[in-house]
Protein backbone atom coordinates (compact mmCIF):
# COMPACT_ATOMS: atom_id res chain seq x y z
CA UNK A 1 0.00 0.00 0.00
CA UNK A 2 2.75 2.46 0.96
CA UNK A 3 4.73 1.75 -2.20
CA UNK A 4 1.71 2.11 -4.49
CA UNK A 5 0.52 5.32 -2.84
CA UNK A 6 4.03 6.83 -2.99
CA UNK A 7 4.34 6.00 -6.67
CA UNK A 8 0.88 7.49 -7.35
CA UNK A 9 1.81 10.74 -5.60
CA UNK A 10 5.12 11.00 -7.45
CA UNK A 11 3.50 10.31 -10.82
CA UNK A 12 0.72 12.84 -10.09
CA UNK A 13 3.21 15.54 -9.10
CA UNK A 14 5.41 14.96 -12.14
CA UNK A 15 2.33 14.88 -14.39
CA UNK A 16 0.88 18.14 -13.07
CA UNK A 17 4.28 19.85 -13.13
CA UNK A 18 5.03 18.72 -16.68
CA UNK A 19 1.57 19.66 -17.95
CA UNK A 20 1.98 23.06 -16.32
CA UNK A 21 4.98 23.75 -18.52
CA UNK A 22 2.80 23.31 -21.61
CA UNK A 23 -0.51 24.50 -20.20
CA UNK A 24 -0.68 27.55 -22.42
CA UNK A 25 -1.56 25.35 -25.42
CA UNK A 26 -5.29 25.06 -24.67
CA UNK A 27 -8.48 26.26 -26.29
CA UNK A 28 -8.04 29.89 -25.32
CA UNK A 29 -4.52 30.22 -26.67
CA UNK A 30 -4.23 32.61 -29.59
CA UNK A 31 -1.22 32.69 -31.93
CA UNK A 32 -0.49 36.40 -31.64
CA UNK A 33 3.25 35.85 -31.75
CA UNK A 34 5.99 33.24 -31.70
CA UNK A 35 6.98 32.27 -28.17
CA UNK A 36 10.56 32.50 -27.01
CA UNK A 37 12.59 29.72 -25.44
CA UNK A 38 15.51 30.43 -23.17
CA UNK A 39 17.76 28.96 -20.52
CA UNK A 40 18.72 30.13 -17.07
CA UNK A 41 20.69 29.15 -14.02
CA UNK A 42 20.88 30.25 -10.41
CA UNK A 43 22.98 29.85 -7.28
CA UNK A 44 21.85 30.50 -3.75
CA UNK A 45 22.59 30.21 -0.07
CA UNK A 46 19.94 29.22 2.46
CA UNK A 47 19.42 28.77 6.16
CA UNK A 48 17.89 25.47 7.29
CA UNK A 49 15.26 26.26 9.91
CA UNK A 50 15.42 23.79 12.85
CA UNK A 51 11.73 22.91 13.10
CA UNK A 52 10.66 21.10 16.28
CA UNK A 53 12.29 20.47 19.66
CA UNK A 54 14.28 17.51 18.34
CA UNK A 55 15.95 19.47 15.53
CA UNK A 56 16.70 22.40 17.80
CA UNK A 57 18.52 20.00 20.11
CA UNK A 58 20.52 17.98 17.58
CA UNK A 59 21.20 20.45 14.74
CA UNK A 60 24.64 22.08 15.09
CA UNK A 61 24.89 23.88 11.71
CA UNK A 62 22.34 25.29 9.27
CA UNK A 63 24.10 26.34 6.04
CA UNK A 64 22.82 25.00 2.69
CA UNK A 65 23.81 25.91 -0.88
CA UNK A 66 21.77 25.46 -4.05
CA UNK A 67 22.36 25.55 -7.80
CA UNK A 68 19.98 24.90 -10.66
CA UNK A 69 19.55 25.04 -14.42
CA UNK A 70 16.18 25.62 -16.04
CA UNK A 71 14.50 25.87 -19.43
CA UNK A 72 12.36 28.99 -19.83
CA UNK A 73 9.40 29.51 -22.14
CA UNK A 74 7.40 32.69 -22.69
CA UNK A 75 4.27 32.43 -24.81
CA UNK A 76 3.64 34.72 -27.76
CA UNK A 77 -0.12 34.55 -27.13
CA UNK A 78 -2.31 37.38 -25.89
CA UNK A 79 -5.19 35.20 -24.65
CA UNK A 80 -7.10 35.94 -21.46
CA UNK A 81 -4.70 34.07 -19.17
CA UNK A 82 -1.48 35.38 -20.70
CA UNK A 83 -2.72 38.97 -20.67
CA UNK A 84 -4.03 38.87 -17.12
CA UNK A 85 -0.86 37.15 -15.84
CA UNK A 86 1.25 39.63 -17.90
CA UNK A 87 2.82 36.86 -20.03
CA UNK A 88 4.54 34.82 -17.33
CA UNK A 89 7.57 32.62 -17.95
CA UNK A 90 7.04 28.86 -17.61
CA UNK A 91 10.01 26.96 -16.15
CA UNK A 92 11.20 23.37 -16.16
CA UNK A 93 14.34 22.85 -14.07
CA UNK A 94 16.84 20.61 -12.33
CA UNK A 95 17.98 21.64 -8.83
CA UNK A 96 20.94 20.51 -6.74
CA UNK A 97 21.07 21.14 -2.99
CA UNK A 98 24.19 20.61 -0.90
CA UNK A 99 23.22 19.66 2.66
CA UNK A 100 26.56 18.00 3.47
CA UNK A 101 27.53 20.83 5.84
CA UNK A 102 24.54 20.15 8.07
CA UNK A 103 25.75 18.70 11.35
CA UNK A 104 23.17 16.61 13.21
CA UNK A 105 24.14 14.77 16.36
CA UNK A 106 22.20 14.07 19.55
CA UNK A 107 23.83 13.99 23.00
CA UNK A 108 23.72 10.17 23.19
CA UNK A 109 24.50 9.41 19.52
CA UNK A 110 28.11 8.25 18.87
CA UNK A 111 28.13 9.39 15.22
CA UNK A 112 27.23 12.44 13.14
CA UNK A 113 23.91 12.37 11.31
CA UNK A 114 23.64 13.25 7.64
CA UNK A 115 21.18 14.95 5.30
CA UNK A 116 23.41 14.52 2.25
CA UNK A 117 22.51 15.89 -1.18
CA UNK A 118 19.26 16.83 -2.88
CA UNK A 119 18.31 16.42 -6.55
CA UNK A 120 14.94 17.87 -7.60
CA UNK A 121 13.06 18.20 -10.87
CA UNK A 122 10.37 20.84 -11.03
CA UNK A 123 8.08 22.98 -13.14
CA UNK A 124 7.21 26.53 -12.24
CA UNK A 125 5.74 29.89 -13.14
CA UNK A 126 7.73 33.13 -13.06
CA UNK A 127 5.39 36.11 -12.91
CA UNK A 128 6.38 39.81 -13.01
CA UNK A 129 3.85 42.06 -11.30
CA UNK A 130 5.83 45.33 -11.70
CA UNK A 131 7.79 46.66 -14.69
CA UNK A 132 9.54 49.99 -15.27
CA UNK A 133 11.87 50.20 -18.23
CA UNK A 134 14.42 47.40 -17.99
CA UNK A 135 13.55 46.68 -14.35
CA UNK A 136 10.92 44.25 -13.13
CA UNK A 137 9.83 42.59 -9.90
CA UNK A 138 7.91 39.38 -9.48
CA UNK A 139 7.34 35.98 -7.91
CA UNK A 140 8.76 32.56 -8.76
CA UNK A 141 6.62 29.50 -7.86
CA UNK A 142 7.88 25.91 -8.31
CA UNK A 143 6.58 22.41 -7.63
CA UNK A 144 8.22 19.04 -8.23
CA UNK A 145 9.84 15.91 -6.81
CA UNK A 146 13.01 15.85 -4.67
CA UNK A 147 15.39 12.97 -3.96
CA UNK A 148 17.65 12.94 -0.88
CA UNK A 149 20.74 10.76 -0.65
CA UNK A 150 20.51 10.48 3.17
CA UNK A 151 17.41 10.02 5.30
CA UNK A 152 16.41 8.57 8.64
CA UNK A 153 17.76 5.13 9.49
CA UNK A 154 17.28 3.56 12.89
CA UNK A 155 20.82 2.12 12.85
CA UNK A 156 23.00 4.61 10.93
CA UNK A 157 21.15 7.98 10.84
CA UNK A 158 18.74 8.03 13.77
CA UNK A 159 18.97 11.79 14.47
CA UNK A 160 17.81 12.80 10.98
CA UNK A 161 14.11 13.39 11.60
CA UNK A 162 13.91 15.79 8.65
CA UNK A 163 13.35 13.23 5.90
CA UNK A 164 12.16 9.63 6.18
CA UNK A 165 11.82 8.68 2.49
CA UNK A 166 14.00 8.93 -0.63
CA UNK A 167 11.33 10.85 -2.61
CA UNK A 168 9.39 13.87 -1.39
CA UNK A 169 7.33 16.74 -2.76
CA UNK A 170 9.33 19.91 -3.47
CA UNK A 171 7.77 23.41 -3.25
CA UNK A 172 9.48 26.78 -3.66
CA UNK A 173 8.20 30.36 -3.55
CA UNK A 174 10.32 33.45 -4.04
CA UNK A 175 10.46 37.17 -4.83
CA UNK A 176 12.95 38.70 -7.26
CA UNK A 177 14.16 41.99 -8.70
CA UNK A 178 15.24 41.63 -12.34
CA UNK A 179 17.28 43.81 -14.68
CA UNK A 180 17.52 43.30 -18.46
CA UNK A 181 21.11 44.43 -19.09
CA UNK A 182 21.06 43.57 -22.82
CA UNK A 183 18.54 42.58 -25.47
CA UNK A 184 18.66 38.87 -24.61
CA UNK A 185 20.16 38.68 -21.09
CA UNK A 186 18.53 39.16 -17.69
CA UNK A 187 19.96 39.18 -14.16
CA UNK A 188 17.81 38.56 -11.08
CA UNK A 189 18.48 38.98 -7.38
CA UNK A 190 15.93 37.60 -4.95
CA UNK A 191 15.08 35.46 -1.95
CA UNK A 192 13.06 32.27 -1.74
CA UNK A 193 11.60 29.75 0.68
CA UNK A 194 11.88 26.04 -0.13
CA UNK A 195 9.90 23.24 1.51
CA UNK A 196 10.37 19.48 1.15
CA UNK A 197 7.97 16.95 2.68
CA UNK A 198 6.62 13.49 1.92
CA UNK A 199 3.21 14.46 3.33
CA UNK A 200 3.44 11.80 6.10
CA UNK A 201 3.69 8.91 3.62
CA UNK A 202 6.79 7.93 5.62
CA UNK A 203 8.20 8.69 9.05
CA UNK A 204 9.86 10.75 10.36
CA UNK A 205 8.69 13.79 8.43
CA UNK A 206 9.52 17.04 10.17
CA UNK A 207 10.29 18.32 6.68
CA UNK A 208 13.02 20.58 5.34
CA UNK A 209 12.41 24.32 5.34
CA UNK A 210 15.10 26.62 3.95
CA UNK A 211 15.20 30.29 3.08
CA UNK A 212 17.76 32.67 1.67
CA UNK A 213 19.02 34.81 -1.23
CA UNK A 214 19.71 33.69 -4.82
CA UNK A 215 21.24 35.12 -7.99
CA UNK A 216 19.94 34.09 -11.42
CA UNK A 217 21.24 34.69 -14.94
CA UNK A 218 18.94 34.01 -17.90
CA UNK A 219 19.28 34.08 -21.69
CA UNK A 220 15.99 34.64 -23.55
CA UNK A 221 16.13 35.72 -27.21
CA UNK A 222 13.42 38.18 -28.15
CA UNK A 223 10.46 36.73 -30.04
CA UNK A 224 8.85 38.20 -33.11
CA UNK A 225 5.42 39.69 -32.58
CA UNK A 226 2.71 39.19 -35.17
CA UNK A 227 -0.66 40.84 -35.51
CA UNK A 228 -3.16 39.11 -33.23
CA UNK A 229 -6.06 37.33 -34.82
CA UNK A 230 -9.62 37.77 -33.65
CA UNK A 231 -9.52 34.68 -31.43
CA UNK A 232 -7.14 36.41 -29.02
CA UNK A 233 -9.77 39.04 -28.30
CA UNK A 234 -12.34 36.48 -27.12
CA UNK A 235 -13.94 37.73 -23.95
CA UNK A 236 -14.11 35.81 -20.73
CA UNK A 237 -17.84 35.32 -21.19
CA UNK A 238 -17.91 34.11 -24.81
CA UNK A 239 -16.20 30.72 -24.49
CA UNK A 240 -18.52 27.85 -23.54
CA UNK A 241 -16.03 26.00 -21.29
CA UNK A 242 -15.36 26.59 -17.62
CA UNK A 243 -12.75 29.17 -18.71
CA UNK A 244 -15.57 31.54 -19.59
CA UNK A 245 -17.88 31.07 -16.62
CA UNK A 246 -18.37 33.72 -13.98
CA UNK A 247 -20.68 33.26 -11.00
CA UNK A 248 -21.64 30.52 -8.56
CA UNK A 249 -21.07 26.81 -9.12
CA UNK A 250 -21.08 23.58 -7.10
CA UNK A 251 -17.91 21.50 -6.87
CA UNK A 252 -17.97 17.87 -5.69
CA UNK A 253 -14.92 15.62 -5.28
CA UNK A 254 -13.86 12.32 -3.74
CA UNK A 255 -10.54 10.58 -3.26
CA UNK A 256 -8.11 8.94 -0.89
CA UNK A 257 -5.84 10.31 1.83
CA UNK A 258 -2.60 8.52 2.66
CA UNK A 259 -0.75 8.95 5.94
CA UNK A 260 1.40 7.24 8.52
CA UNK A 261 0.94 7.77 12.26
CA UNK A 262 3.37 9.91 14.21
CA UNK A 263 2.30 7.99 17.32
CA UNK A 264 3.76 4.81 15.80
CA UNK A 265 7.07 6.55 15.11
CA UNK A 266 7.23 8.03 18.61
CA UNK A 267 6.65 4.57 20.06
CA UNK A 268 9.03 2.47 17.94
CA UNK A 269 11.29 4.77 15.82
CA UNK A 270 11.78 2.15 13.12
CA UNK A 271 12.47 2.46 9.38
CA UNK A 272 9.12 1.25 8.05
CA UNK A 273 5.56 2.19 8.94
CA UNK A 274 2.05 1.36 7.78
CA UNK A 275 0.45 3.80 5.34
CA UNK A 276 -3.28 4.11 6.01
CA UNK A 277 -5.45 4.97 3.02
CA UNK A 278 -8.73 6.60 4.03
CA UNK A 279 -11.70 7.72 1.94
CA UNK A 280 -12.46 11.44 1.69
CA UNK A 281 -15.07 13.56 -0.01
CA UNK A 282 -15.83 17.26 -0.29
CA UNK A 283 -18.55 19.59 -1.54
CA UNK A 284 -17.94 23.30 -2.10
CA UNK A 285 -20.07 26.24 -3.16
CA UNK A 286 -17.73 28.45 -5.18
CA UNK A 287 -17.90 31.83 -6.88
CA UNK A 288 -15.66 32.58 -9.86
CA UNK A 289 -15.09 36.30 -9.89
CA UNK A 290 -12.68 36.44 -12.85
CA UNK A 291 -10.68 34.25 -15.22
CA UNK A 292 -7.99 33.88 -12.56
CA UNK A 293 -9.77 33.47 -9.23
CA UNK A 294 -12.56 31.54 -7.52
CA UNK A 295 -13.40 31.26 -3.83
CA UNK A 296 -16.06 29.73 -1.65
CA UNK A 297 -17.02 27.55 1.31
CA UNK A 298 -16.57 23.79 1.63
CA UNK A 299 -17.75 20.83 3.70
CA UNK A 300 -15.26 17.96 4.19
CA UNK A 301 -15.65 14.35 5.30
CA UNK A 302 -12.95 11.76 5.94
CA UNK A 303 -13.34 8.14 7.02
CA UNK A 304 -10.44 7.72 9.47
CA UNK A 305 -10.09 3.95 9.41
CA UNK A 306 -6.94 4.20 11.53
CA UNK A 307 -8.84 5.33 14.66
CA UNK A 308 -8.46 1.94 16.44
CA UNK A 309 -4.68 2.11 15.98
CA UNK A 310 -4.60 5.57 17.53
CA UNK A 311 -6.43 4.17 20.55
CA UNK A 312 -3.80 1.40 20.79
CA UNK A 313 -0.83 3.82 20.68
CA UNK A 314 -2.52 6.20 23.13
CA UNK A 315 -2.93 3.35 25.61
CA UNK A 316 0.76 2.44 25.21
CA UNK A 317 1.68 6.05 25.94
CA UNK A 318 -0.56 6.16 29.02
CA UNK A 319 -3.26 8.45 27.59
CA UNK A 320 -6.87 7.83 28.59
CA UNK A 321 -9.52 9.10 26.18
CA UNK A 322 -13.12 7.97 26.18
CA UNK A 323 -14.14 8.18 22.54
CA UNK A 324 -12.59 7.42 19.16
CA UNK A 325 -14.53 7.77 15.92
CA UNK A 326 -13.68 6.96 12.31
CA UNK A 327 -15.89 9.83 11.10
CA UNK A 328 -14.29 13.26 10.72
CA UNK A 329 -16.23 16.35 9.56
CA UNK A 330 -14.96 19.84 8.80
CA UNK A 331 -16.01 23.13 7.22
CA UNK A 332 -13.79 25.75 5.67
CA UNK A 333 -12.99 28.36 3.05
CA UNK A 334 -11.33 27.59 -0.29
CA UNK A 335 -9.59 29.63 -2.98
CA UNK A 336 -8.46 28.53 -6.46
CA UNK A 337 -6.11 30.35 -8.82
CA UNK A 338 -6.24 29.42 -12.53
CA UNK A 339 -3.69 29.40 -15.33
CA UNK A 340 -5.10 27.65 -18.40
CA UNK A 341 -5.76 24.00 -17.46
CA UNK A 342 -3.72 24.13 -14.25
CA UNK A 343 -4.99 25.58 -10.98
CA UNK A 344 -3.54 26.12 -7.52
CA UNK A 345 -5.96 25.27 -4.71
CA UNK A 346 -5.70 26.24 -1.06
CA UNK A 347 -8.01 26.19 1.92
CA UNK A 348 -8.37 26.67 5.67
CA UNK A 349 -10.98 25.02 7.86
CA UNK A 350 -12.07 23.93 11.30
CA UNK A 351 -13.20 20.51 12.49
CA UNK A 352 -16.84 20.19 13.39
CA UNK A 353 -16.41 16.64 14.66
CA UNK A 354 -13.11 14.81 15.27
CA UNK A 355 -12.62 12.24 18.02
CA UNK A 356 -9.17 10.71 17.57
CA UNK A 357 -7.70 10.71 21.06
CA UNK A 358 -4.46 12.51 21.84
CA UNK A 359 -3.88 13.56 18.21
CA UNK A 360 -7.08 15.65 18.38
CA UNK A 361 -5.67 17.59 21.31
CA UNK A 362 -2.14 17.97 19.93
CA UNK A 363 -3.19 19.06 16.41
CA UNK A 364 -5.91 21.51 17.41
CA UNK A 365 -9.19 22.23 15.64
CA UNK A 366 -7.98 23.90 12.44
CA UNK A 367 -6.55 22.46 9.22
CA UNK A 368 -5.11 23.73 5.95
CA UNK A 369 -4.71 22.35 2.41
CA UNK A 370 -2.57 23.39 -0.55
CA UNK A 371 -2.12 21.59 -3.86
CA UNK A 372 -2.44 21.47 -7.64
CA UNK A 373 -5.23 20.46 -10.00
CA UNK A 374 -5.39 19.57 -13.67
CA UNK A 375 -8.67 20.51 -15.38
CA UNK A 376 -9.48 18.30 -18.35
CA UNK A 377 -10.16 20.30 -21.57
CA UNK A 378 -12.44 17.62 -23.08
CA UNK A 379 -14.94 18.27 -20.26
CA UNK A 380 -14.87 22.03 -20.68
CA UNK A 381 -12.57 22.09 -17.63
CA UNK A 382 -15.40 20.88 -15.41
CA UNK A 383 -13.72 17.55 -14.61
CA UNK A 384 -10.50 17.77 -12.62
CA UNK A 385 -7.94 15.61 -10.83
CA UNK A 386 -5.61 16.89 -8.17
CA UNK A 387 -3.45 16.32 -5.16
CA UNK A 388 -2.83 18.35 -2.03
CA UNK A 389 -1.13 18.23 1.34
CA UNK A 390 -3.33 18.58 4.40
CA UNK A 391 -1.69 20.17 7.43
CA UNK A 392 -2.38 21.38 10.95
CA UNK A 393 -1.18 24.64 12.51
CA UNK A 394 0.16 25.75 9.10
CA UNK A 395 3.26 23.61 9.64
CA UNK A 396 2.51 19.98 10.54
CA UNK A 397 1.60 17.69 7.63
CA UNK A 398 -1.33 15.36 8.28
CA UNK A 399 -1.90 13.54 4.97
CA UNK A 400 -1.23 13.46 1.25
CA UNK A 401 -4.53 13.50 -0.66
CA UNK A 402 -5.48 12.55 -4.24
CA UNK A 403 -8.95 13.43 -5.49
CA UNK A 404 -11.09 13.65 -8.60
CA UNK A 405 -14.04 16.00 -8.92
CA UNK A 406 -16.56 17.81 -11.11
CA UNK A 407 -17.91 21.35 -11.29
CA UNK A 408 -21.66 21.92 -11.82
CA UNK A 409 -22.84 25.32 -13.07
Key traits:
409 residues, mainly beta, Porin, 2 domains, 8-stranded antiparallel β-barrel, 8-stranded antiparallel beta barrel, 48% strand, flat, disordered N terminus
The domain tally reads 2
- Euclidean distance between termini CA atoms: 37 Å
Shape: flat
Strand order of the largest sheet: 1-2-3-4-5-6-7-8
CATH architecture of the largest domain: Beta Barrel
Largest sheet geometry: 8 strands, antiparallel, barrel
Number of strands: 16
Low-confidence stretches: 1-31, 223-238
Oligomeric state of the chains present here: single chain
Mean pLDDT: 86
CATH fold assignment of the largest domain: Porin
Gyration radius over CA: 23 Å
SSE ordering: HEHEHEEEEEEEHEEHEEHEEE
Main structural class: mainly beta
Q: In CATH, what is the class of the largest domain? A: Mainly Beta
Strand content: over 45%
Amino acid sequence: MKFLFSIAICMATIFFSTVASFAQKDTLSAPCGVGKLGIGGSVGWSYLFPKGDHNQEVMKSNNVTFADVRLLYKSGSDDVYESKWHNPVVEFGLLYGNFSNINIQGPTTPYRGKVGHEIAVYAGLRYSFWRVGKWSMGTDLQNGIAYFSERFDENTNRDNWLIGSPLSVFISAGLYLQYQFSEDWLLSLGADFKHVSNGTLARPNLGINTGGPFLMLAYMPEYKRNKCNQRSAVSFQEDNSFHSKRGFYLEVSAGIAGSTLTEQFQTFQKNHYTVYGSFLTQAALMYRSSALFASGVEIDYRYANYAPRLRYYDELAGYDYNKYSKNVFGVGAQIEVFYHNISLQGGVGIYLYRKLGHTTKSNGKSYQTVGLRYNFPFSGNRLFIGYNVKAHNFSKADAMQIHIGYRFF
